[in-house]
Each structure stands twice: as structure tokens, then as C-alpha cells.
Specification:
The protein has about 240 residues and is α/β, with parallel strands linked by helices. The protein has a domain of about 160 residues: P-loop containing nucleotide triphosphate hydrolases (Rossmann fold), CATH 3.40.50. The strands form two sheets. Strands 6-7-8-3-9-10 form a six-stranded mixed β-sheet. The longest helix is centred in the C-terminal third of the chain and has 18 residues. The relative contact order is 0.19. The C terminus is likely disordered.
Length: about 240
């Protein structure tokens, strides 16, 4: 059963003061549930990335309340926000951000070692996750030896290897062909169900709503429509 993992109440984000103040988001009320993939869709400049940044504790809202994993974020100091982010949030980036000198396995392992897992255990865990994403045999390949879709899946592996239960993906398929993009989105939706992760993916691509549990439309900083879907996709690991 899904449960609320992150919650926004009356959240806004504005820049400037007085007559020059410009609000790029809100007010927004939103609950993000474990076990679901939520798509946030809208045109460029609609507030999608700002919303994602607030959920990921990268930006503080101007007004409103935010809670994560049952803890009220409020006016917590940056050190505490950073600790919550490390513990609860994982990011999937559009441009992979892999370290070119490290193999696929090493790119995943770096984060695990930083999180406190020993070298041998981190290596085993990295290989298990890469294998679950259809990358068996690619563990020792450098990024330049991988396709775009394979590099994106290494990025996903790096994110899900971390303990964060909230996975935030910013345009994860923008640079991919349709087949690879579908494999990536299928992987994220499958991850939500199998591991009870709360996944929020920002996109403007109309191909992906059938793979999601919920679709939010955002325009001019406000959520204008919400659609809950019973996904018809087969929930199995992407190849």
C-alpha cells in the first residue's frame, strides 16, 4: 500500500522583493507516495524543475510547509537539510554525470563507499543493481564504451544504490531515442513498485503517462490537473 513520503502545503517560490517580486511556483499542495511514480508535465518555464528542487531540498520555499519522511523541514539549518537530503533523496540527471575515468561499477560504487558500505560489499551491491537493470556484462565498461541508454541506466543504478526513498528524475529521457527512453521510464516505474520508492519524474514528453501511476500538469507555477492511472505496463526490469 502506498503511503505519503513527501508533502507540500501551500508552497511557493518567489524571487525579489516588493513590486519586483516574481513568483515562479505556487501555491502548491502535493503529496508524494511511496510505491508510485508521479510524472510532472508542463512546458518550459512552468515550474517543473523548481518543484523538483524544493522536493529534493535543494531550494527552500518562500512560503508554505514541507515535510519529508514524516519530518517537518521548515526552517531547518542547511546542515540539517543536507543530512536529510543525503539520507532520503536520490537524483537521476538528464546528462548522466558519470565519471569518465571510472567503470560503470565504479561509478555506482563511489556513492556506496561514501555512504559507508565497505569496498567489497559496495562492489557486490553495485554489480547486483547493474545486473537488475539489464547491464550484466557491462559492469567493467567505461562510459565511452556504453550507449546513451546504458549510461542513463548506470545513472539510475547510482541513484537507487543509495538509501534515498525519494527518487527525483529531471527530464531523464530528453537525450534518448524512444526505445531507450521507454526502457528507462519502465525501469523507474518498476522500481517504484518493487522497492516502494517514491519517484517523481519531470518531463514534457507525451509518451510517458501510460507508464506512470499519476500524472500532474503544471503551468505558470501551479498544478492545473491531476490524473491517476492504473498502469497497463508490465512491471519487469528493463532490458
Amino acid at each position: 500500500m502506498s503511503r505519503t513520503f513527501a508533502k507540500l502545503e501551500g508552497v511557493t517560490k518567489c524571487y525579489g522583493d516588493g513590486a519586483r517580486q516574481a513568483c515562479v511556483l505556487g501555491p502548491v499542495d502535493l503529496e508524494v507516495a511511496s510505491g508510485e511514480m508521479t510524472l510532472v508535465m508542463g512546458p518550459s518555464g512552468s515550474g517543473k524543475t523548481t518543484l523538483l528542487s524544493i522536493l529534493g531540498l535543494l531550494l527552500a520555499p518562500t512560503e508554505g510547509r514541507l515535510s519529508l519522511a514524516g519530518e517537518k523541514v521548515g526552517d531547518l539549518p542547511e546542515s540539517r537539510r543536507a543530512a536529510l537530503r543525503r539520507r532520503h533523496v536520490a537524483f537521476v540527471f538528464q546528462h548522466f554525470n558519470l565519471l569518465e575515468s571510472l567503470t560503470a561499477c565504479e561509478n555506482v560504487r563511489v556513492g556506496l563507499v561514501h555512504a559507508g558500505l565497505s569496498g567489497r560489499k559496495a562492489d557486490r551491491r553495485s554489480r547486483e543493481i547493474l545486473g537488475s537493470l539489464g547491464l550484466s556484462g557491462k559492469e567493467d565498461s567505461l562510459p565511452r564504451e556504453l550507449s546513451g541508454g546504458e549510461m542513463q541506466r548506470v545513472g539510475i543504478a547510482r541513484a537507487i544504490a543509495m538509501p534515498g526513498r525519494l527518487v527525483l528524475a529531471d527530464e531523464p529521457t530528453a537525450a534518448l531515442d524512444s526505445v531507450t527512453g521507454e526502457a528507462v521510464m519502465t525501469t523507474l516505474a518498476d522500481l517504484a513498485r518493487r522497492e516502494e520508492r517514491a519517484i517523481v519524474a519531470v518531463t514534457h514528453d507525451p509518451r510517458w503517462p501510460p507508464l506512470a501511476h499519476r500524472v500532474l500538469a503544471i503551468r505558470d507555477g501551479r498544478i492545473t490537473h491531476e490524473e491517476r492511472r492504473e498502469s497497463s505496463m508490465p512491471f519487469s526490469s528493463a532490458v
